Amino acid sequence: RVRRQSQQRCEGCHSLFGEYYCGICHLFDRDKKQYHCAECGICRIGPKEDFFHCSKCNLCLSLSLRGKHKCIENVSRQDCPICLEDIHTSRVGAHVLPCGHLLHRTCYEDMLKEGYRCPLCMHSALDMTRYWRQLDDEVAQTPMPTEYQNLMVEILCNDCNARSTVQFHLLGMKCKNCESYNTAQDGRCRLPLEEQ
């Protein structure tokens, strides 16, 4: 019995099995500017010149992210927190959030229709500065009822992890450290000392 090696063309008629062929993965495909990444251990859709392999994240990323993303060790070996499917071997590109977590690009786009926070750590998934300034105006124009005007609450900021005591407001409570409204109440409401 003769064992034959996989190859791109038929030995008999020389027909091409696929425009792209990887002898390591034994992958035949149409040409999508694929390349084999030895560190990832699989073929990736390229072109190769547009990507680099981040050894800490253990994933090929767009060159535009070189030095501009937060690395989380082996983050690509986790499932997408939205669809719960593998990110590392997916044909759908990965989107790197500012916190360093990964989502499939399509899952990220769907997530933005419903909210703005990373589903794993609750950090803002995009720059919300403009929206926070709009919320400043809305808070200023929306007075609280008398019984809530002097109510103070302890908050935890999901963006910078700072804790602070701020005035309660139904529209949102602004972090004193980074000025984000991506906060959560971290304790009970209380009146200022002079009113207790």
TrEMBL record:
Query: Could you confirm whether the keyword Nucleus appears in this record?
Result: yes
Q: In which pathway does it act?
A: Protein modification; protein ubiquitination
Major location (coarse)? cytoplasm
Sorted alphabetically, the Gene Ontology BP terms of this entry are:
protein ubiquitination; ubiquitin-dependent protein catabolic process
RING-type domain ranges (all copies): 80-121
Which key words tag this protein in UniProt? Cytoplasm, Metal-binding, Nucleus, Transferase, Ubl conjugation, Ubl conjugation pathway, Zinc, Zinc-finger
Tell me one Pfam family matched here.
zf-RING_2
- Its Enzyme Commission number(s) read 2.3.2.27
Family annotation (Gene3D superfamilies): 2.20.28.10, Zinc/RING finger domain, C3HC4 (zinc finger) (3.30.40.10)
Which reaction(s) does the protein catalyse, per the Swiss-Prot or TrEMBL entry? S-ubiquitinyl-[E2 ubiquitin-conjugating enzyme]-L-cysteine + [acceptor protein]-L-lysine = [E2 ubiquitin-conjugating enzyme]-L-cysteine + N(6)-ubiquitinyl-[acceptor protein]-L-lysine
This protein's record includes keyword Transferase:
yes
Q: Which GO terms describe its molecular function?
A: ubiquitin protein ligase activity; zinc ion binding
| Chain ranges of the CTCHY-type domain | 17-79
Q: Which GO terms describe its cellular component?
A: cytoplasm; nuclear speck
Compartment list: Cytoplasm; Nucleus speckle
Query: Its function?
Result: E3 ubiquitin-protein ligase that mediates ubiquitination of target proteins, including p53/TP53, TP73, HDAC1 and CDKN1B. Mediates ubiquitination and degradation of p53/TP53; preferentially acts on tetrameric p53/TP53. Catalyzes monoubiquitinates the translesion DNA polymerase POLH. Involved in the ribosome-associated quality control (RQC) pathway, which mediates the extraction of incompletely synthesized nascent chains from stalled ribosomes: RCHY1 acts downstream of NEMF and recognizes CAT tails associated with stalled nascent chains, leading to their ubiquitination and degradation.
Q: Which PANTHER family match?
A: RING FINGER AND CHY ZINC FINGER DOMAIN-CONTAINING PROTEIN 1 (PTHR21319)
Quaternary state and interactors: Monomer and homodimer. Interacts with AR, MDM2, KAT5, PLAG1, PLAGL2, COPE, UBE2D2 and GORAB/NTKLBP1.
Protein name per the record: RING finger and CHY zinc finger domain-containing protein 1
State the organism of origin: Pandion haliaetus
The gene designation is Rchy1
